Amino acid sequence: MLNQKNLFSCRHIHFIGIGGVSMSALAQYLFSKGIKISGSDSTESIYTQKLAEKGVAIGIPDGQKYARGCDLVVINSAIRPDNKELQNLIMQNKTVASREEVLGAIFNEFAKSVAVCGMHGKTTCSAMISKCLDFCNKSPTVFVGGTVKDFDSNFLLGDSEICVAEACEYKANFLSLHPFINCMLNVDSDHLDFYKNIDDITDAFRHFAKNTKSGGINVVNGDDKILKNFDGIKFGLSEDNDYVAKNVIHKNAKYSFDLFKRGSYVATVNLNVLGAHNVYNALCAFCVADLLGIPSDEIKAGIESFCGVDRRCTIIKGRFTVITDYAHHPREIKTFLDTVLQMGFDTVRLVFQPHTYTRTRGLFDDFVKSLKADEVYLIPTFAAREDVIAGFESKDLAKAMEDDGTNVKYFEDSAQLARLLNETSKSNDAVLLVGAGDIDQMSKLLK
């Protein structure tokens, strides 16, 4: 079993898929410990660029020549077993570990480890917790699945006993982690290429709840219809929670609320990020910081200073407004669109890039219902790790939406769609670029 001792005994670790947001954070951490790091990825990204600037040797798309002499090869779920580089390294008898094994070996050694799990919102919530703790001079080490605007990074190297990390539910990867504080945001149907159904998903979350260290605590969204039945300290809007948001108001999608702890008023929190969902994130962050002994006035200031995560309702101002968002599940899309509707645009044009064929297949009818705007445009599916599934491509989803009465068009060519949007969008219009693939790159064509 991989642990921190044998991980740190490695002189050279090679990452296949090093540009992944989680993989690159691990690579940065191990590099900071004096271990030689190399890697490969199919394309360049901001993460490969930052690693290269530090002196990490990265091959695009193949990095076998940089892997010579490595002690360990790290892969993530996107790397298929038939990957040529992986197969060649296995033939050389290289030891292979998964991303989640490596994260677990690091994370589990921290005395005050904080994990954030949930089908939706874990990146923003873990980033908010991290910013709050950093603001309060707790110097956490942080592994986040997105670029935190406050750090301009997905990784933060601290010097305390606190570590904050996302706990990924895909393929039950979070079971490699044993947190001191286990934050559980929500349970929903997703990853149906791995899980059988919602009961199977719930079982995985129940198992992870038991992973919490002895003496640790589960911090649970008490308003979630599944998690409300879990044990732990609870947060939410309902009065029976331990940490409760009352008198919730908003202006132009920015929310404020009064925070109560077990019936007693604690503070009025004015969020600097958009959307009602961030009220829940703030409650969770406040609870974590409170459990770690931070004074309430410092927690409030730390949460209010949080500026968000890239591609989470990220606004790009130009001749018209472009907003990029990572939402790729029907529930996330609805939450995002509800936020945009509070911002007062004349016309909202939604461009959506489905993420994986299995997700489209598993949640097809929900996508049809959630993708609603004045105008909707679909572009080809971002396949990620998958082969095409006939009948569940982006064009099939567009046809079903049209049959349901949605004003939708399918575009094979993103550049052609960008030209149309440039021609038709006016100053108080919004173009939304939504999805977990590379759709955000389309923003460069909009002006």
Portion in strands = 15-25%
Number of strands: 21
Read across the widest sheet, the strand sequence of neighbours is 8-7-9-6-10-11-12-13-14-15
Question: In DSSP terms, counting alpha (H) and pi (I) runs of 4 or more, how many helices?
Answer: 14
Could you say which overall geometry the principal axes of the C-alpha atoms support?
globular
Structural class: alpha/beta
Sheet of most strands: 10 strands, mixed
Chain oligomer state: single chain
Tell me the helix content: 25-40%
User: What's the alpha carbon Rg, rounded to whole Å?
Assistant: 22 Å
Parts with pLDDT < 50 across at least 5 consecutive residues:
none
Distance between the termini: 52 Å
Q: Mean pLDDT across all residues, rounded? A: 97
Describe this structure in words.
By secondary structure, the protein is an alpha/beta fold. It is 31% helix and 25% strand. The chain has 14 helices and 21 strands. It has a 10-stranded mixed β-sheet with strand order 8-7-9-6-10-11-12-13-14-15, with helices on both faces. A 6-stranded mixed β-sheet has the order 16-17-21-18-19-20, covered by helices on one side. The N and C termini lie far apart (52 Å).
